[in-house]
């Protein structure tokens, strides 16, 4: 398996097995609370004390905060020439992100399906695993991206 | 099909077919750009002029911004007593959210699967459709939530 991290790449350069490694992003309690206040205002994302009596037994990041940080790390590390254009995907959180965690993402090309109707593009299935500093998976995300051939 | 919008509900009160309707949330260009600057810094999410030459032919919200707004609307409209605790889900964006759109969410209970090992809870599959002011779907999200029975 190859690893790529800098040059812009086109569909022409993509291959199953190609991997991309992101940088690291620390996640602190104040960021968790700020994101949740705006988008996921629930006790276990807003207040460490209130979170103790919940399912999570402590403050945890919204799963969508973990996903949003993951997206930033993907944009920085998966250099598709025309951008990261996702049609959708499947997501799961084996364990939550907690204050003090440092996240990084490994993205792997699983499948490339050329478009039948539009020969300039393909759907590329990419698995993006988000790890913490303990190398335990915080999020599994498998997405279908649109990738384009280099224009002449 | 019933519609519920206020009281806190437990697993005991849930039934397949139950629907929840959210309020409305307008989405403006400055919010789209602010979210994308932090989490999805790509030309089609950051700059209306630069976005014209891209796949989207204009400024569009990050799909994760649509999801984050959807989550806020779900938290406000799906009153699970112990909170919205998601194990994961499937997401797709039939069309992007654009500046000036007003979003609302309809959530429907599709399936209830009692836990075999823990009789106090079940996995509840909920489909959350995010619509724009034109009633066209911006996002389809199907999630598996944990719901608990009322404690004695």
From TrEMBL, chains A, B:
Limits of the MaoC-like domain: 24-118
Gene3D superfamilies for the chain: Hotdog Thioesterase
Lineage: Bacteria, Pseudomonadati, Pseudomonadota, Alphaproteobacteria, Rhodobacterales
Record protein name field: MaoC family dehydratase
Top-level taxon in the UniProt lineage: Bacteria
Pfam name, any one: MaoC_dehydratas
């Amino acid at each position: 398996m190859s690893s790529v991290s800098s040059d812009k790449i086109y569909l022409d350069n993509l291959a199953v097995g190609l991997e991309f490694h992101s940088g690291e992003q620390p996640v602190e309690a104040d960021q968790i609370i700020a994101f949740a206040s705006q988008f996921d205002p629930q006790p276990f994302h807003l207040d460490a004390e209130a979170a103790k009596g919940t399912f999570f037994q402590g403050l945890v990041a919204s799963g969508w905060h973990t996903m949003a940080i993951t997206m930033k790390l993907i944009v920085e590390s998966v250099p598709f020439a025309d951008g990261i254009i996702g049609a959708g995907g499947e997501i799961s959180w084996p364990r939550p992100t907690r204050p003090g965690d440092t996240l990084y993402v490994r993205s792997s090309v699983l499948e490339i399906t050329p478009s039948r109707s539009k020969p300039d593009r393909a759907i590329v299935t990419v698995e993006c695993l988000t790890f913490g500093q303990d190398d335990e998976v915080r999020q599994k995300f498998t997405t279908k991206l649109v990738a384009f051939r280099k224009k002449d």
